[in-house]
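Could someone model guanosine-5',3'-tetraphosphate with this protein?
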Amino acid sequence: MNFQWYPGHMTKAKRQMQEDIKLIDLVIELVDARIPQSSRNPDIDELGRNKFRLILMNKADLADKRRTDEWSSFFKNKGYFVVSLDARSKVGMKTITDQIMESCREKIERDRKRGIKNRPVRAMVVGIPNVGKSTFINSYAGKACAKTGNKPGVTKGKQWIRLSKDVELLDTPGILWPKFEDQMVGLRLALIGSIKDEILNTDELAVELIRFLRASYPGILAERYEIEEEGAESELLMRIAENRKCIGKGGELDYSKAAALLIEEFRSGKLGRITLERPEMA
Ligand code: G4P
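Reply:
Sure, complex below.
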């Protein structure tokens, strides 16, 4: 499967982030809880060197709770502060402020020793497109001060959002780009919908999803589509087409329609809470 990205955007985004990162104490990195590793760009560790670090595992409402806990421990063991959340709801935002303060405790102590008072922690949100950066900024800041949308880079202009007397947030999230060198990473990003659908082969993607699901979440397909899980992946897709009456113009079963339906149901959580990768793979 071939994936494309746009080097022009990448270079510009990276340069911008290098500038912005000089202004802050804390990097708040959003990842997608369904693929906590593949939705990161490891370059952030270099870009965010010497900064305090907080990882938000977003879209946790769509991820497998057990795996989210495993990933949380994994990142904590590496020295990051971690919170899992659903950025669309305001639940858990208080925990984030606590974690921000906790992660920057060293700076706060240092300021206090130097007699510096009331200097807020400055933070910026970073992450690959579509992980929920704008949604999070909106929820956290409590008002529509950052536009949300599917297009990366919709938020323009630099401003600080004063969240409390202790925390200021850069209103523009830093955009990282996913890393595609590993085919599996590309595949997982495609499955969660992080890569534009036009450049993907949906049939192939659905086959890969079936392969993964019956190995890691046996019974899910059987239950939802009332089908046997044995046989070739393509056969399962035909059974899904039958079950969901995906019929082409000539009255034949429409394989591609079933593929699109399966992927949509996975992305929207209708198949249940599913995580595509485990810390052991990292
Ligand atoms: P970005 O700035 O990182 O590019 O992402 P953005 O906030 O635009 O969010 C991308 C999509 O993800 C949005 O959906 C948003 O609603 C959704 N989203 C963000 N956080 C969460 C979360 O915690 N859980 C779930 N389930 N979804 C989340 P959209 O399809 O673009 O728009 P809409 O469905 O909100 O209309």
